[in-house]
Each structure stands twice: as structure tokens, then as C-alpha cells.
Input
Amino acid sequence: MTVAIESPLITNAAQTFPEGLYVHLPFCAAICTYCDFASETYAAARAQRYLKSLENELRVRVAELGLTEKYAPRTVFLGGGTPSALNVAELTTFFDLLKRYVDLSRVDEFTIEANPGSTDAQKLEFLLNQGVKRISFGVQSFQPHLLKLLGRVHGADQGREAVTLARAAGYDNVSVDLMHGLPTQSLDDLRRDLDEAVALGTDHISAYGLIYEDGTPLKSAVQRGVIEPLTPDVEGEHYRTVMETLDKAGLPQYEISNYARPGRESLHNLIYWRNEAYLGVGVSAASFVGFLRSTNQYEMDRYMADSEKNGHATASSETLDSAARAREALVLELRLRRGVDAADFLKRWDLDLIAQPPLAKYLREGLMEQLPNGRYRISRQGMPVADGILSEFV
Output
């Protein structure tokens, strides 16, 4: 049952009920050198306590939706961390608690993130039987020297085998994460990674440029002069190579970092990019419900203590007014290659895209373009610097 949450802030708002559910499962076999997500090395006792805390929060957050039936989202996404780091017994506990509060019968897309090193036939079969039909493997690269650089615990062969195992188990929607712009990564390395992912019959590829996050071993290595980052020009060449290679392979770009065969775009992530409502539970998880944006505690012990106390583990929250919501929606929708229909956007958000000064500037420079159907979008020339373009529309 879907219930719209009324808000006086925006009278002609898009959907405010969270059709997407995100669950953060933070455990990993090891922490990668580039990762600043809320994650920690797997330990059985910690996993058991976390699952109890997660149920506490889920019970309270679902109750706040004011439903007369179970919460029935359209998409579910299990992210991390590495959700597949949990064993089958722990995953059984997780799905039991999930089903106590969530009706999965309406789910159009159920995704789990998985590490090739913690995926086997038994686990894949179990997940499929629970309704998980889409799996996203954090492969990152098929090149051994790059996997070592990133601190990945799986080998190149395991990346290939994971996709093959998923196909054999019955998954017909398989996504692979790859990274580009890595130190020591050549264009040939990148092309080999892209070609291998395509050859495996992958339905969706998320290709992320490396960001040197504060507090990570990789950022520390750069600061000490142990690792030399690629130049911006070379990083841009990597990005263009990804776009061109995957487009030719039948996986056109549909968002800044995402490529898919037609009909295989991530429905859950499209909820974010369309600025629709979603519910997030777990450590560091974000939610956007009834125009209230909130983020949970990032630190595990703080999250579990807060959730155990009252079912809430919110670290920060804000209610967006109509102007802030409109600008946020514009920036998110401009990430999509379909672009933005200015007339439709004005009707939905009361914000005139055509009147925004950055638009005219970037049209002149060729970094944005108007499509034959009238929609505006960032051009292929502008995609490597898309973050800088979008920042001017905020």
C-alpha cells in the first residue's frame, strides 16, 4: 500500500513516498585502499549485533510511514560494505527480519552488491530464492597489478568466475563495477577491462573514476609521494575511452558513471537521480522521505548504540524548501543522458532551466547541448568535467 506523505512545502511535488529501500550491510573481508564508506572487517559477533540493531531501526522507520499494511517498495538495494560477506546463516537471519516489516511481492528490482571473493554457488542460489534477481559485482579490474593497488581480496579469475556462476545460478541481470583513472593504469589496461566485462555478457557496467578520499591508504600514499596520480588530461582520456568503448559494445551511457544494455538501467538508482523519495536503513544510510533528508550515524558503535536505544540512529537531517528541492532535482536529472525537458521541469518544480545563466554559457562552449526533441543535457565533450558543470547549477 502506498501512502503519500503530505507536506506544506511543495504543493505540486513529485512522489514523496519512498518507493526505494536501501539497506547498508557494512562488512567486508578486508578494507580496500580507496574506500571511505562505512565498513569494517567481518566478525561474527559484530554481524549478529548489527543485524539486531538493523531490525530495531527498520521496525521504527517503517512504522513512521503510517501504513496499514507492510511497507511494499518498488526497488530494494543491499549495499555496503560487501553484503555477500555474510554467510548463509546470517543472510537467513537478515531476510527473516526484512520480511517481518517489508512486503517484497511488489518489488520490480532487488539488487545485492557482491564481492567475487565471497560469492559461491550456494550463496547465489540462496539469494535468488529470496527474490534477489539483480547482482552487482565489485570487480573493479581484471588486471592483477591494479587489484593489488586497490587492496582487493579477489583475483582476476574470481571476477570472471563470479559472473559465470551468477549466470549459471539463473541471474539474468548482472552488473559489474570497474574503475578508471587509477595510478599506473594504462589505456590498454582499461580497454582490456572493458572488453572482458563486455565479453562476459554483462548487462550493466558502473565505471567510476578514482577519487582520492581523505583518510584512505591510497590518499596517504599520494601525500607521501609513494604514488603519483594520473594527470587530469589522462583521466579525461580514460573517461572518453569508457564512453566510446561501451557505446560501441551496446551498453550506452545513461548516467555520468553508468552504462547498460537497453532496459537494464538500474531502477533503484534512477529513483535517486529523479530526486524521488527513498528510505535508507543501516549505518551511514541516507533517506529522503516527505521532503526530509536524513543521514544515519557513520560510526558503527554509535549507530548500533543509538538504534538499540530507540530505533533511531540519525546523525543529521534537514527539510528542503521548494527552491532547494528544485535545484537539487535539476542537478540530479542533468546527470542523466536523457537530459531535461525545460517546459516539463518548470511545470514540476517551478524552476526555469532556460533562465539559468550556466546553461547559456555551457551551450556556447559546447559543454551542453539541446537535443532535437528539445531536451537539454551535458554533451559528450562536457561529460569528463560534468561535476564542475553541475556545481554551477546549485
In short: The domain at 20-273 is CATH 3.80.30.20 (pyruvate-formate lyase- activating enzyme).
